[in-house]
Amino acid sequence: MRPIVKITANLKRIRSSNLHRRLSINTAKTDEIDMLSLTINQMLEHLEQSFDSQKSFVANASHELRTPITSILGEAEITLMKERDPETYKSALKEIVSSVERLNLIINSLMELMQTNLDNRDFQNVKVDELMWEIADELAGKSNGDQVRMGYHLPEDITKSVISGNRRLLFIAISNILKNAVKFSEGKTVDCEVRYIDKGIQITIRDQGIGIAKDDLIKIFQPFFRASNAMNFQGYGIGLSLTDNIVKLHNGTISINSVLEQGTTIVVFFPTA
Ligand SMILES: Nc1ncnc2c1ncn2[C@@H]1O[C@H](COP(=O)(O)OP(=O)(O)OP(=O)(O)O)[C@@H](O)[C@H]1O
Ligand SMILES: [Mg+2]
Prior knowledge:
By secondary structure, this protein is α+β, with helices and mostly antiparallel strands. It folds into two domains: 1-118, Signal transduction histidine kinase, dimerisation/phosphotransfer (DHp) domain (Helix Hairpins, Orthogonal Bundle), CATH 1.10.287; 124-271, Histidine kinase-like ATPase, C-terminal domain (Heat Shock Protein 90). It has helices at residues 3-12, 32-80, 86-117, 128-142, 167-183, 214-217, 239-249; strands at residues 124-127, 148-153, 162-165, 190-197, 200-207, 253-259, 263-271. It has a five-stranded mixed beta sheet, with helices on one face. β4 (190-197) and β5 (200-207) form a beta hairpin. It is flat, with a radius of gyration of 24 Å. The chain starts with a helix and ends with a strand. 22% of the residues are buried. Bound molecules: adenosine-5'-triphosphate and magnesium ion (MG). Its EC number is 2.7.13.3. It is an enzyme of class 2 (transferase). It comes from Pedobacter antarcticus 4BY. It is found in: Membrane.
């Protein structure tokens, strides 16, 4: 069979149900056709990975949504089984309200996550130092104001501290990191630094909190993942997956360094125009 016809025939057999299939490659003498097959195989690899992560996302999301729904149903059904006194009705309703609040939070975060998956690029010029200042300010209002220490190392040329982006999404991305730093370090100072480095802005957020175990580091960007040492803290494991999506949407990078019981440093880099 002619090589291109063979590739086409093989590709037609690949469906979402058998995405693990790959085109065969002659490794003995790699020619242009093999290079093409190799590229297609790499694309299939990406597709398979993204299918897998979608599947686990749906499974995790369903589980997270089902938990509060089950408790709402249970509470209501048990209360309705017989006549109760007003106090019992009141406490049942309170339970229900708190589960609905939880549901509401999860749904809102999921909606935000969906938005970051859409590629709707209504980008504008965002001054990073201003943005950081606003985020820290908002956070100070909610927690102990002294906890976040900001530092700026910006160039004279202010055009260099501007990135092209979606302000609201950037706000969410950075504030998730900062909120984690504050939350997981229980009152210890969080250092936040904005620095202009070659062709971009680097934001470093350093805390002295509980830290993240080495094996968990690669998982923390997965939706709903929470490390075992985080279970005593409020949260759903959605924040960082949102942040990761948003940073990617802005062609940025995010790196993380952490030592258990000592602290975590997250560095985000955004290229400037
Ligand atoms: N600064 C940090 N220090 C220690 N652990 C962290 C830190 N930031 C993130 N983590 C770990 O990564 C996990 C995922 O973070 P993420 O922000 O996605 O979830 P969350 O903060 O637990 O919940 P949510 O953001 O939905 O309120 C956390 O549960 C925690 O285990
Ligand atoms: Mg969080």
